[in-house]
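Quick note —
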Amino acid sequence: MRLPTEDEKPFSSNVKEKEAIELIREAVDRGINYIDTAWPYHSGESEKIVGKALEDGYREKVKIATKFSWPYVENELDVSLEDRDDWYFLFDEQLDRLKTDKIDFYLLHSLDKSKWSRYKESGIFDWLEELREAGKIDYIGFSFHDDLDLFKEIVDYYEWDFCQIQYNYVDLEHQAGREGLEYASDKGLGVIVMEPLRGGELAKKLPNEVKEILDADNSKQAVELALKWLWNQPGVSLVLSGMSNLRQVRQNIEIAESYKKDEITEEELSSLEKARKKYLAISPVDCTGCNYCMPCPNEINIPRVFELYNKSEVHGEFEKQKKKYIKLPEKEKPKNCVSCGECKTKCPQDIDIPEKMEEITRYFNKEKQVK
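Predicted structure written out below.
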C-alpha cells in the first residue's frame, strides 16, 4: 500500500491522512475488498490509517492482510524472535492499530534465507496455529524475496494457505518467478502478486524504447497491458496494486471492470515479451522503490540515488539527472557509504547496495560538474 504523502516520497511517514482515508473508502465503495498493509509501511503509519479508514462499517466489507514483520520492527519495538510474549505483544498492537478483533490474512513478512532459518528454529508455526484456533486469524501465508530453490523449500515445509510473490511481465525469472507461481499453485496455495507494475516503473516511467514496442502512448495503456497480462496468468489468485491517489484508484478499477477473461491477444503477448527483454537490457539497477533499505544509518537517500541512476541510463538523461544528483544534500549522496551492509540485508531484490553506491559515485563524477 502506497498512500498519498505530504512530501510525495513513497512510504514516507508524512501521510495525508484525510486524503488516504478518502482513497481507501472510495476503493471499497467501488468494489475493492482486500487491503494489504504491514507495520513498517509508511514508517509505522499504514496500519493506523487503514484502521481509521475501516471504521463506520467499512471493516465488514473487506479482508485485511498484514504481516509479522520481524526483523523490521525488532529495534523499534524491542521484539525478539526468541520470546513468544513479544509475538503476542506485536500481534495485539496490530489488532489495536487496525481497530479489529481478527486479521483475515496474516503473513510472515519478506522471507529470505536468513529470516527463514531463524523462523524454522523459533516455533512460530505452533503460535500461528494457536492464533487461528482462537479465531484471531483466518489464513496463514508468507511474502517472499529470494531465489526459486528457497521458495520451493518454504512452500513444502508447512501447510500454507497462500503466498505473496513479486511477479509481472518483466520478472518471469526473478525470485520465485513463473516457475514458483506454478509450483505453489499446483500445491494448492493461493498466489497473491505484489509489484505488478514494479513500483510504477511499468507505468509512468517506461523507457521510450519499451513504449514503442508496446505502442502505449500513455501510462493508462501501459498499466492496462501489465494488469491484463497478470489476470490472464493461470494460478494468480489476486493482484495487489499500490495506489497513492484517487486518479490511480479510479483508473485501476475502470481497467478491472472492463477486463474480460482471456481477452489479451497473441499480438499483445508477443509485444510484452519483446518489451521485457528490452527493459531488462537497459535497466542498471533492479530497484522497485520499496524503501525497505531505509533509513540508512549514514542518511544516504538510497532509493533516490537509484532513481537518478536508472533514469539517466534508461532514458538517456545523464546531464539532466546529474544536475539533480548534484543538488542532493551532501549527506544523502552515495559517497558517504561505509559499506556497513545494513541495507543489503534488508533489500528484497538482493541488490549489493554498497557496491552500487560506489558505482554510482564514480558514474556521476565521470564528467565535469554541470553548472
